[in-house]
Amino acid sequence: MLEIEKRGFLSEEKYQWILSFLEKHGKDLGADDKDVIYYIYSDMLLKIVNNVSKSNAKISLKTNKIGEGSIFPETEIFFDQKDFEDMKYIFDAMARPENVMRGIQKRKNFEYKNCEFAIKWSEAWGFHFEVEKMVNNLDEVVQAEKELYAVADELGIEILSEDELKKFTKKAEENANKKL
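The chain above was modelled as a monomer; its predicted structure follows.
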């Protein structure tokens, strides 16, 4: 499976409007608040995620960085939430990333027009969204991307370009380093 993921920023007003719209017109998949540790490498993103709202935890590996393409395999392994701090300890001791970031993410997920739509807030990103689809192979990518852009257009929101994502994530990583 391949994940196709697009992101963009929202004003607080637009965030509230989209939340209200999706609660009326989308399928509510529920709250999905997270405590996330990001291990950032030059060519991939490894995360340990405490899924606070869902009472589970996972390790997630994306074989690219944000801003380095929106189509990539993602592998997830779930584990017991009570083991989150132990897993963090192990990864802190073993992982050798270029950067580590930690952040609380407030998130609510919806399904809308066969796309998964997450409306989110975090300290690093502020109000933002993520819209994604999973596909079985590269032949399905073009159609899936059309669907993602159509949803964004309908909601009156802009998807960030890869260059915009790259610049933003670089700045967010630099800001995280200043806090350490």
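The longest helix spans residues 162-179.
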